[in-house]
Hints:
Layout: H1 30-50, H2 59-83, H3 92-135, H4 138-155, H5 160-174, H6 185-213, H7 231-251, H8 258-270, H9 284-334, H10 338-348
Amino acid sequence: MSRPQEPHRPFFPFGNPFRMMSPKGSQLSQALLELLNSFEETLAERLRKLETVGDVLSLAWMKSAMESLCETHKEIKTLIARLELPVSDWDEKWIDVYLDISIKLLDISNAFSSELSRMNQGHLLLQCALHNLEANSPQQFVRARSSLDGWRRQIRTKNPRLQKCCSFLDGLMETLNLPKVKNSAKGKVLMRAMYGVKVQTLFICSVFVAAFSGSSKKLFESDVADTYLWAQDFKHLRGNVNLKIRKKLSSQSGHLVKELEGVDTAVEKLYPLTQNDFISLEEESLRSSVKQLGIEADKLSGGLNLLVKEVDGFFQIVLTGRDALLSSLRATCTGTDPTVGKRVGQSVV
Length: 349
């Protein structure tokens, strides 16, 4: 990540994250150590599982990656509950970090949803084209040609909201270093676990940005210390995924998402056949091309529907977590019923 030439104060200057388990200050009890190890081992298992899902950058893999991320964010909420660390005991810097991260994640989720919506709109154009071609009439043939033209224009148009994701990812990178924890064993566990959550989040979001934008500029490359139980599994997964992305980008100029590439290949085969006078569907070349496009369009639609649900689920997890924190802060500051604070928290979001 590029840096300005002049020195500047980091967004959250919390120092070296690897000092958090220093022998100075509070030591971890056996119970806390087991709690932390369980969290890290579960994260390592999730990362290993992603290596067995299938083709990287297929919608099926992306769906599994987002599902894995949702599970980790749920797990950190469970961990906080089991730590029994009230919000009133949280360091103010922890709260600042959490709120800053959550708003960036909501923005990133919205950008992903926007791109998936664009793909779904393109799929509607494909459905129109197929429907008109199957009507097997000169008038409908012209309409099918128009729909295919619309697909080709839309799929080659850049989504401006994806461009903003780059700055959001830069902002998340600024929060990767953890706050210093003084004399708080529970705080050390929380910060170490949060680091794992942020690393997985940055990695998966960077892969999504690469898949949607066709650029590897924001792929996550930061080093991770081997002191984490999930470090080796993460490095192995990241190395394989990033290598495949770069290899695919260097070998072709097409789409990174497998199902999108399949549809585009079928469209480019069918499109020239529609540029001349009416061709009956009885012609083998047209019938074969229409059939192949239908198959690829169904794969795209099915994959998009599943991925949309996972992205929406991730948005809700982040939103409810942010809302719960704001609600607790409101209740702590005013001494009012948490329900009142929740309404205030929702207003802030």
